[in-house]
From TrEMBL:
Region (Disordered): 1-67, 97-121, 196-234
Protein name per UniProt: Helicase ATP-binding domain-containing protein
Lineage: Eukaryota, Sar, Stramenopiles, Ochrophyta, Bacillariophyta
KW Nucleus (keyword) present: yes
Residues in Helicase ATP-binding domain copies: 353-549
Low complexity compositional bias, start-end: 1-15
Transmembrane portions of the chain: none
Pfam assignment, any one: Chromo
Length: 669
């Protein structure tokens, strides 16, 4: 059908349509399906009473209501083709590609249901994304079914017709490699919670009902975790297996959904690795494990101090030899992604570890392209693995670089890395499911109280104050909003600030919040490719941030180094900041990169460009506006340098020139 016919078809509603009996929705497990908590319960008596009144309402009314989130696609196929397509689409919410149980009761009807029609008859269906369900449960629905069974379906159809192109809602860039939507939306990114299946089931035998416990001996066809794949099995409806709270790929945390394990198996969704990852990261170390970790930290710190310790009385050659051996081991080490560090990157990591062992913060100011992100990831990983520290470590990076940071930490390390960003609902899910271990999460939080602050009581021993998240990546904007109070509740092992030149304004809110006494961290690492952009006060701001005791007064610093005019003063400044800053250029460390070459090609202006360039330069308004009725329709002489630049790039960039030249071409023809 054409789009006009599509729009006309759903507008024609007859009185007979409203008299049809509603079909039975294939929502067989909604009573078992867990619902996401939209907000953390508040420990207030008045709110508890109101919530109890809300809970007393009939749950079946909410469970049975079907809501469309959006219509994704429109497709026309034969009845036979639809039968083949839909027979492969079965989940706990979808039956043979539809949200409703399809029967043959309407075989004699004249609607578009397709029942009783020849197999070669074409039929049009819409791919529907249902509210509160993932893209795993999308279904192909007939227009009449949507109009009859779902409220406000006309609105969704109108919106689809207005926004779709060639029967598809999403553009090619949004779909990626998918036919109708991004395939990563049905790929498991993380599992946030696992609910085991119920151990008891009710089974009717003859006319009497008996309760029995399912076991491997009684139900040999049931697989592990109570999954039943055989549709003919009498307990197929209850054999859905475990439930996972799934965060899907390239989606927000607020869009995570509970999914049955059987649905993932039937749709060939890989999830085993994420289950193992969840079980591994959600296991909180006990007191014995934490005591061993603390002893390991002390032992490894003493071992590294023998290599990097500045107060040790070692011969200079002996010290350099130990550091060189340590760098060689770093260069030869193969990381989880199969990558290895370059020699200058190993030197950078060893320098960071030297400052860490000597309890000094650092500024890594390598030129862009030398791998500051990788060096930081390896440095944090070394502190976590070699020293046995669980962190957590906070990475503050611009929003555009957050995916890159997450990708590098995931590939170069095995640390539990999360991205703390998104809407208020997204961040609430992250705090509740990702930051703290399940046993540490509070059951109730008062109004205007910090969730993370209540995870670990002040009186709790040190070994209990551990966090499930090891690396948290966030943006500077999160530290100047209400989330500052949440993030300040955590004592961070290392604070990493990418693009640290944003801190050059000593009085900015970001700099003030990071210097706030409530925000606690043991070490600081600042990353910037331009430690000095305008003046020496910016350098002092960075130095003051990492060592307030050594760089207290900006006036004395500027008086000494604000106007350097001699080589001796430059050497003195270098000696003073050398322990804090490491700065390297590509031509100094990356010998494999050939030197940059510039080739200038001069291009002569065309005849038309020369004419308009000269007219603009001489402000010849008579020539520029010779064929226009209004001056606003011709080239402007305001901001002359920009107009000349446009003319050099292409004359059509000048207002009115393209129309004038096309008119001249038509006259010649």
């Amino acid at each position: 059908r054409t789009r006009s016919k599509q729009q006309q078809s759903y507008k024609k509603q007859t009185t007979l349509t409203n008299l049809k009996q509603p079909k039975s929705p294939a929502v067989r497990h909604t009573t078992k399906r867990h619902r996401k908590r939209l907000e953390i319960p508040v420990s207030d008596e008045s709110e508890e009473s109101s919530s109890s009144e809300e809970d007393s309402s009939d749950p079946e009314e909410d469970e049975g209501e079907l809501k469309v989130q959006r219509i994704i696609a429109c497709r026309s196929e034969t009845v036979c083709a639809w039968r083949e397509i839909c027979n492969k689409m079965n989940t706990s919410e979808i039956e043979n590609g539809s949200r409703w149980f399809q029967d043959d009761s309407d075989s004699d009807s004249d609607d578009d249901s397709g029942n009783g029609k020849p197999d070669n008859t074409f039929q049009e269906r819409y791919l529907v994304k249902w509210s509160d369900l993932s893209y795993l449960h999308c279904s192909w629905e007939l227009e009449n079914d949507l109009m009859d069974q779902v409220e406000n379906s006309k609105t969704y159809l109108t919106s689809f017709f207005r926004r779709s192109e060639n029967g598809l809602l999403f553009t090619a860039d949004e779909r990626g490699d998918g036919e109708y939507f991004d395939p990563s939306w049905v790929q498991v990114d993380r599992i946030l919670e696992i609910q085991e299946p119920e151990q008891t089931e009710e089974k009717t035998v003859g006319k009497s009902s008996k309760r029995r416990r399912l076991s491997d001996t009684e139900n040999t066809e049931s697989s592990k975790h109570g999954i039943i794949l055989d549709k003919e099995h009498p307990d197929y409806e209850s054999g859905t297996g475990r439930q996972f709270l799934v965060k899907w790929g390239n989606t927000a945390y607020s869009e995570c959904t509970y999914e049955f394990e059987r649905d993932l198996i039937l749709n060939e969704v890989e999830y085993e690795e994420e289950v193992e990852s969840f079980c591994r990261r959600s296991k909180k170390p006990n007191k014995s494990d934490m005591n061993k970790a603390l002893n390991s930290i002390e032992h490894q710190t003493r071992r590294l101090y023998k290599i990097f310790g500045e107060k040790l009385k070692l011969d200079e050659k002996e010290r350099e030899g130990k550091i060189k051996d340590y760098q060689t081991k770093l260069t030869d080490h193969v990381f989880p992604n199969g990558g290895q560090l370059r020699d200058y990157q190993s030197e950078g990591v060893s320098w960071l570890m030297s400052n860490h062992v000597n309890k000094r913060s650092s500024i890594l100011a390598d030129e862009m392209g030398l791998g500051k992100t990788i060096q930081t990831a390896v440095y944090v990983n070394t502190v976590a693995t070699t020293l046995g520290s669980r962190g957590p470590f906070l990475i503050v990076a611009p929003l555009s670089t957050v995916p890159h940071w997450s990708r590098e930490f995931t590939s170069w390390t095995e640390l539990n890395t999360i991205v703390y960003h998104g809407s208020a609902a997204d961040r609430e899910y992250i705090r509740e499911y990702e930051m703290a271990f399940e046993r540490d999460r509070p059951t109730a939080v008062g109004f205007n109280q910090s969730f993370l602050k209540k995870c670990h009581p002040v009186t709790a021993p040190k070994w209990q104050r551990t966090w499930m998240a090891q690396v948290v990546i966030t943006t500077p904007e999160m530290l100047v909003t209400e989330d500052f109070a949440e993030l300040a509740a955590v004592r961070w092992e290392i604070l990493v600030v990418d693009e640290a030149h944003r801190l050059k304004n000593h009085t900015s809110k970001l700099a003030a919040n990071l210097r706030d006494d409530r925000f606690r961290f043991d070490r600081t690492l600042l990353l910037t490719g331009t430690p000095i952009q305008n003046n020496m006060s910016e350098l002092w701001t960075l130095l003051n941030f990492i060592d307030r005791d050594s760089f207290k007064n900006i006036d004395s610093f500027l008086e000494r180094y604000g106007d350097i005019k001699s080589k001796e003063m430059i050497d003195e400044l270098h000696d003073r900041i050398r322990p804090y800053i490491l700065r390297r250029l590509k031509e100094d460390v990356e010998k494999s990169v050939p030197p940059k070459e510039e080739t200038l090609l001069e291009v002569e202006l065309t005849v038309v460009q020369k004419q308009y360039y000269r007219a603009l330069y001489e402000k010849n308004v008579q020539f520029l506006h010779r064929n226009v009725k209004k001056a606003l329709d011709g080239p402007s002489i305001n901001n002359l340098a920009m107009q000349l630049r446009k003319c050099c790039n292409h004359p059509f960039l000048l207002r009115g020139v393209e129309d004038e030249l096309r008119v001249q071409e038509q006259k010649k023809q």
